[in-house]
Amino acid sequence: MKRSKRYQELAKKIPTDPVSLDEAVGLLKGFGASTKFDESIEIHMRLGVDDKQADQIVRGSIVLPHGIGKTQKVIVFAKGDAAEAAKAAGADEVGQEELAKKIKDGWVDFDVCIASPDMMGVVGPLGKVLGPRGLMPSPRAGTVTPDVVTAVNEYRAGKVEFRNDKGGNVHAVVGKLSFDPAQLQENIAAFIDYIDSLKPATLKGTYVRGISIAATMSPGILVAA
Known about the structure:
Shape: globular
Helix content: 25-40%
Radius of gyration: 19 Å
Number of helices: 8
Oligomer: single chain
Number of strands: 9
């Protein structure tokens, strides 16, 4: 892949060995002066898990201390009082069969899909559309819940979901480049600590094998575990 001249110049400034979180964030903040938009900050963690082992899948969600700098578009599958409560909480769209049909017809203009348990019969068939996009509601992620109001509030505040990929890597947005360094450090540290807490009991060997952070338009910076 051919990289831009800016990217190549930034890559020359990055240490080849892992650095402290404080230094890594400082480097990223210094890169922001050369872009015209507020870049997202992402974390990438390489884990020593085996994706083929069900008990080694690392998956979940977390509300970061300072959010992610973006109000996520949230839809909710619910009916009755739960539907009204979801609307009052600020859900962008609430529905049942008609919302399912809209998604089946190709509409996926949202960031999070939440469902009350009694709506999974309607949501289940949408797996082929929502699953590949990481939008399928899940009890483990907190997106299948009887308390749709709390879920809506958390995701609008910047709750992030994650699941290791086939290579054992976990990726997540942890803020914006415009955040104060302390805010970015606290968000990143909170995410790392949470992943650490999810170490599978059956895992043998090293769990966290590598950590890097990057802005939307920058190379990754290795962070000391």
